[in-house]
């Protein structure tokens, strides 16, 4: 009888398939950026299109994933139906879960695609779902970043936490010996209803941004020109003061201890790191293209910061900050990426089209209809305005329930340099508040005190990139802003938006000025430099020949002295006598271009008087080499090793691998 029953049920038993299993370990992570190990098995007839989805909150609808990874690109054993992958997770103040889906060739819908025009994976066939993964409580706030207030003896610190309970910042000259009363942080946030367009105001793009805290540390002693031990734990240098800070609360936990060098308005030296259009990287694919090169940019800047020791410096990011474009968790990824540098030095920004532009923005003159569109992903400047707090009080109403757009234009002195930030996304024409600010500010510069004036904005006044859509805006800038710059002796104008590095001769109305060499009359014109090469990898073509617009031949105009598609950033070093701007390439961390400007306005190299050779190669002088390069080489190995450890496992090449496997291309047609 038993044999008969076994014979009867054996075919049925053989048809029973094991259910796919998806496990995660650990289920509680210590801090943002820690990795979770994800393992799966029992996937029957695995396909190259089987994919793993990341979800936060864990109960999000299937199509509201944070990101995804194809199993075939994640594990060498995927064809066996089993595999594993480790992913670093950024805290979004809610738990994560993971799901595996089957997606078939017949279900590929080319109408539903990501920003790269790659079809988004389908969610019809759920195979497995994991338990949730969370973060330890009491780890303190995150996304810490500093900013100058514009007032001597102060430093602003901002951070994000999961609730609005009171947080404080305690600080002092020695770790563990906190001076005076702690600075109480004010708190704010924005809501989904503040967003003005899709995807920012839809469930697919919106995630709770947490509570944003803002505190000002005051009564700080000013730093002066003196080098001392990096970090300076327990040691006060003779001429620099290092402040160590902790942010948080007793009940919610304190953050890791960070340090910064206090601002000294009277310093005779300025050091800054400047770039635009960086974005952020993610270890997964998502709705919006992310920027792997941003990791290299931060890596090299961190090297430079550590090599400098404790010299006061700051970072300037001139528009197109996170490229979140309505997918709010990319702001969290961005701040997680920059925290190693932004918690050390002030991180300053100005607004770009991908933070702001939306169809019904308040200022949109007829000539700008083709310029201002949907680039902001419906954010209408809200996350940018609340997540940063720059000096000054510039703002423009949005015309909606959203709070006014802030951080539009401001200025401050840093050593011998006067820095000015402007907005190319809001009204800058005569009669506007911004124009009045720029005119008054530039006319008020005391060039005996700050002999150098540097203006920064997002969209460039000059470029040889084929940016025909922005031509009307450039015409307005040339008509109304260039006269202000020339009249008020602006030395350097830095722009982003075009994802290349390009340096021009000293310019006025497309005409190169003389370099001021002996025996020649000369007039000081601004040197324009496009520095939008920090991360975004969409590359425009150069401007074609007017008489052959369709031929892929792009002669370099005489006014353009150096241009490249390489990623990187710029370093600015100034004394009261000379300002040097250097372009550092990401592929090797070396200087590839440099321009020097004297306090008189004279440009020493890279002009129209290089013995008849425009853009002649110039030699880095010994003073500049000594003042920076030696520091860099002295600290490179240890710093790079530390940073690689910080981001190890974070860079994902799945985007390129998937594109290759599917025959999809990663090129875009309209992205600035």
Structure at a glance:
With 672 residues, the protein is an alpha+beta fold. The chain is globular, with a radius of gyration of 27 Å. Residues 275-501 form the Calcineurin-like phosphoesterase domain.
Count of individual beta strands: 34
Name the average pLDDT. 83
Main sheet: strands, sense, barrel: 8 strands, mixed
The rounded Rg comes to 27 Å
Helix content: 10-25%
Poorly predicted regions: 224-242, 607-627, 633-671
What structural class should be given to the helix and strand makeup? Answer: alpha+beta
- Through-space gap between termini: 77 Å
Beta-strand content estimate: 25-35%
Shape: globular
Tally of contiguous helical segments:
11
Subcellular location: Secreted
Catalytic activity: a phosphate monoester + H2O = an alcohol + phosphate
Transmembrane segments: 631-652
Keywords: Glycoprotein, Hydrolase, Iron, Membrane, Secreted, Signal, Transmembrane, Transmembrane helix, Zinc
Labels describing this entry:
metal ion binding; PAPs_N; 34 strands; alpha+beta; eight-stranded mixed sheet; acid phosphatase activity; 11 helices; 672 residues; disordered C terminus; signal
Task: Explain the overall architecture.
This protein has 672 residues and is an alpha+beta fold. Helix content is 18%, strand content 25%. The protein has 11 helices and 34 strands. Strands 24, 25, 26, 27, 28, 29, 30 and 31 form an 8-stranded mixed beta sheet that branches. A 6-stranded mixed beta sheet has the order 21-20-19-32-33-34. Strands 12, 13, 16, 17 and 18 form a 5-stranded antiparallel beta sheet that branches. 49% of the residues are buried. The model is unreliable at 224-242, 607-627 and 633-671 (pLDDT under 50).
């Amino acid at each position: 009888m038993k044999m008969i029953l076994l014979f009867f049920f054996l075919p049925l038993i053989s048809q029973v398939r094991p259910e796919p299993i998806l496990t995660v370990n650990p289920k509680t992570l210590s801090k943002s950026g820690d990795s979770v190990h994800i393992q799966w098995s029992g996937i029957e007839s695995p396909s190259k299109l089987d994919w793993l989805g990341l979800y936060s909150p864990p109960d999000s609808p299937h199509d509201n994933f944070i990101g995804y990874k194809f199993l075939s690109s994640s594990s060498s054993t995927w064809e066996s139906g089993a595999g594993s992958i480790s992913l670093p997770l950024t805290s979004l103040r809610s738990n994560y879960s993971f799901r595996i889906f089957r997606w078939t060739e017949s279900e590929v819908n080319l109408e539903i695609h990501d920003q790269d025009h790659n079809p988004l994976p389908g969610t019809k066939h759920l195979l497995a779902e994991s338990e949730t993964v969370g973060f330890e409580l009491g780890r303190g706030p995150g996304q810490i970043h500093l900013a100058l207030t514009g007032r001597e003896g102060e430093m602003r610190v901002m951070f994000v936490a999961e609730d609005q309970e009171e947080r404080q910042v305690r600080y002092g000259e020695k770790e563990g010996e906190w001076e005076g009363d702690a600075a109480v942080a004010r708190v704010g946030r924005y809501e989904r209803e503040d967003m003005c367009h899709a995807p920012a105001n839809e469930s697919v793009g919106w995630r709770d941004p947490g509570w944003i805290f803002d505190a000002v540390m005051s009564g700080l002693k000013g730093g002066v020109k003196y080098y001392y031990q990096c970090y300076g734990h327990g040691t006060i240098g003779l001429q620099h003061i290092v402040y160590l800070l902790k942010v948080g609360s007793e009940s919610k936990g304190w953050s890791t201890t960070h340090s910064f060098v206090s601002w000294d308005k009277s310093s005779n030296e300025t050091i800054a790191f400047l770039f635009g259009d960086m974005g952020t990287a993610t270890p997964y694919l998502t709705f919006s293209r992310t920027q792997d090169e941003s990791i290299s940019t931060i890596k090299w800047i961190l090297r430079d910061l550590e090599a400098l020791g404790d010299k006061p410096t700051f970072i300037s990011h001139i528009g197109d900050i996170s490229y979140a474009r309505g997918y709010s968790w990319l702001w969290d990824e961005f701040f997680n990426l920059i925290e190693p540098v932004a918690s050390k030095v002030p991180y300053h920004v100005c607004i770009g089209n991908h933070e702001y532009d939306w169809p019904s923005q308040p200022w949109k003159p007829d000539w700008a209809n083709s310029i201002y569109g949907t680039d902001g992903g419906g954010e209408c400047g809200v996350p940018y305005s609340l997540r940063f707090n720059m000096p000054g009080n510039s703002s423009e109403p949005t015309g909606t329930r959203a709070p006014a757009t802030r951080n539009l234009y401001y200025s401050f002195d840093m050593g011998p340099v006067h820095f000015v930030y402007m907005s190319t996304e809001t009204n800058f024409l005569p009669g506007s508040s911004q124009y009045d600010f720029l005119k008054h500010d530039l006319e008020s510069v005391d060039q005996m005190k700050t002999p150098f004036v540097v203006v920064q904005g997002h969209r460039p006044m000059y470029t040889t990139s084929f940016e025909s859509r922005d031509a009307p805006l450039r015409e307005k800038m040339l008509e109304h802003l260039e006269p202000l710059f020339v009249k008020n002796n602006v030395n350097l104008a830095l722009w982003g938006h075009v994802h290349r590095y390009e340096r021009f001769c000293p310019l006025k109305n497309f005409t190169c000025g003389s370099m001021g060499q002996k025996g020649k009359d000369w007039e000081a014109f601004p040197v324009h430099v496009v520095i939008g090469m920090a991360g975004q990898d969409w590359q425009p073509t150069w401007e074609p020949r007017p008489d052959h617009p369709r031929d892929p031949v792009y002669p370099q105009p005489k006014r353009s002295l150096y241009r490249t598609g390489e990623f990187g950033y710029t370093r600015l070093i100034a004394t009261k006598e000379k300002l040097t701007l250097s372009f550092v390439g990401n592929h090797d961390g070396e200087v590839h271009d440099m321009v020097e400007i004297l306090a008189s306005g004279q440009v020493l190299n890279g002009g129209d008087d290089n013995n008849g050779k425009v853009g002649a190669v110039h030699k880095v002088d010994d003073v500049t080499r000594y003042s920076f390069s030696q520091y860099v080489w002295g600290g490179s190995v240890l710093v790079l090793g530390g940073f690689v450890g910080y981001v190890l496992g974070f860079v994902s090449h799945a985007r390129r691998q998937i594109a290759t496997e599917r025959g999809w291309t990663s090129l875009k047609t309209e992205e600035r």
